[in-house]
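note to self: the first set is below, dont mix up w the second
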Amino acid sequence: MKIIKPHFITDSMLVSSSVAENDYPAWVSGTTYALGARVIRTSVHKVFERLVAGAGTVAPELDTTSPAVWLDVGPTKKWAPFDNVVGTLATGTSPLNYTLRTGFTDSLALFELTGRYVDVVMKDGAGGVVVYQKRIDLEAGDIETIFDWFFTELDLRSDIVITDLPGQYASAELSISVITTSGTASVGVIKPGLISDLGETQYGAKVGIDDYSRKERDAFGNTVITKRAYSKRGSFTMMTTLGTFNRVYRTLAALRATPCVYIGTEDAGYEPLLIYGFFTSFNIDITYPDYHLCSLDIEGLI
C-alpha cells in the first residue's frame, strides 16, 4: 500500500492548458441576469448560476444576500481536475494538455480519463532538460481468448498512477497530454504529489462502490431510475515492520480528513484498488514482535 499526498495546485503552478476558461460569459458588475443564467469568475475559477432574476454589484463568490441569489455550480472546465468534486471533467480536443510547475514531485495520479494514450514529460525547470518521458497505453490488456481479441469491445483504463517520477528537482515542470484516436479527450482528476510506502497489502482486500443514483416507484409501481455518480470504497490490511511503525502511524494521523491517492497495489489488473479519497479509520494491531497488521478503511471521492 502506497499513498500519494497531492500538491495543492495554485494559479502560479498552472503554466498552461489547452482547455480554455470560457464555459460561460464572465460576470459583469451591474448586469441584469435572468433566472438560471450562468456566469464564470476566473479569479476563483468557478461557475455560478443565478437563482433570482436581477442585478448586483457584489461578485457571486462574495455575495451574502439571504436568501441566496447565486448558486456555486462548481469549477470551470479548465480547473475541474484540481477540485475534489465527483464528476467534474476537463474536456477538449485531442491532445488535451496541461503543464504544471509542481516542484518536488515523484508521483502522479490521473482519474476519470477518456483517451487512448497519456504522455507524461518532466523537465528540470521551465524550458529545461527533459528528465522523464513516458507514454502510457490505456488499453486494459485483459484479452484472454482469440474470441475476445476479435469480438470484445476495446476496454480502456480510466484511472492510472505513475510512481517513478524523479523527485529531486525543486523546479520541476510536468506536462500531461491525454490523446484520443477519435472523439474528445477528458480527465477528471490530476494529482501530482509525493509518495509514501505504508506497507505490504495483504490478500483479503475489499473494494466496492457507493452509488448515488436514485430508484423510486411511482403510484403505479413503475420504477423510475435517475442515474448519478458513484464513488469507490475499500478496506485493506497491510503488513508493516517494527521499524516503520512510528512513521506509518504519524503519516496516517497527519493525513486525517485529507484527500489522498491510495494505491492498494501497482500490479496489472487491479485498477479498482486505486482510490482517491480519505480514510475513515485505521488500526494497527501489534500482532508480532517484528511485524504489525494495519487495517485501513477508505472512502473515495470518485
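second set (the one i keep forgetting abt)
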Amino acid sequence: MENDVTTRLDGKVAVVTGAGSGLGRQHALLLAKQGAKVVVNDLGGSVNGVGGDSAAADKVVAEIKAAGGDAVPNYESVATQESAEKIIKSAVDAFGKIDILVNNAGILRDKSFGKSDLKDFSEVFQVHYWGTVYCTKAAWNLMNEQKYGRVIFTTSIAGTSGNFGQSNYGSAKAGMLGLMNCLAIEGRKNNVLVNAISPGALTRMTGNLGIDESFMKKLDPAFVSPAVAWLASERCDVTATIITAAAGGFGRLHYFETKGVQFDPSKPITVDMFDQQFDKINDLSTADPSTAGTEGKTQERLDTLSA
C-alpha cells in the first residue's frame, strides 16, 4: 500500500511534450490517471517535423478529461527557446507550478550518413537536443526554487548503441545524456532529479524502420509509460539513470569503465606499450560503473603504482 501512495501524482503538475500521439500520449494519459494535472503539448506536425495541427493535443486532453482527469493543451514547438518557455508558462498559468517535465517531442530524418544533408542534422538536433535543453531550462529554476522536480529525457538505443541510417537522431539522443549527467549533479541538492527513458515502441516514428512485424506488435507504447510515471513520482530516488523499456521488459543502462592499466607517468609512454596492454585495457570483465565527476579512475589507477 505504501508504494501505491508514493507512486501517485496527486497535486503534481506535469508537462509532456509531443503528447498528441504514440509514447507521449500514453505518458500523458498515465500521468493523469496517477493524479497529475497535465499540459499536453503537441505541435501537431508530421513525423519529419512539417506542419502543425491542434487536433492531436486537443484529442488527448479530451481523453484525460473524459476519464476524470485535468489537462490543458499546448501547441507550441519545442524547437525555439521562446516557444519552449511558453510551454512551461502554460503549466504555471493553468495550474500554478511545474513539477514534472517529460521531454518526449521528436522528429525523424533518417538517411545513411553518406547520403544525409547536414540540414537534417540541424533540424533533428533542434527538436531532440535543443528542444530538451530549452524546455528543461524554462522549468529548471522553478523546480529548484520549490525544492522539487522530476525531469525525464527520452533517449534511444540509436544513441547508446547505434543504428543504421540514424546518425543525426542517434547523436542527438546521445548528446542529451551528457546534459542529463551534469544536471543530475546540479539538481540533486534541491530534489530535482534528472533521468532518461530509452523506449522501444510501435509508433508513427518507428513504423518504417524495417523491424519484423511480429516483433513490432509486442511494442505497445503503453508498456513504456509505467517507467516514466515512476520516474515522475516521489517514489523515484535515483538520478542520472537510464531506464530501457520495451515490450513489457525493463532494464538499466549505464556507462562502465574497465580496470585498465597504469603506466608510470614519470617515464615515457609509447604506442607499443599501449598496444601490448590493449587486451587488458579492453577487458570488459574488469569493468565497473562510472561515477560522477572528472576524476574517473585516474587516482585509483595511480594508487596501483605504490601498492
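remember for set 2: The beta strands are 13-16, 37-41, 70-74, 100-102, 149-154, 192-200, 242-246, 249-253, 256-257, 288-289.
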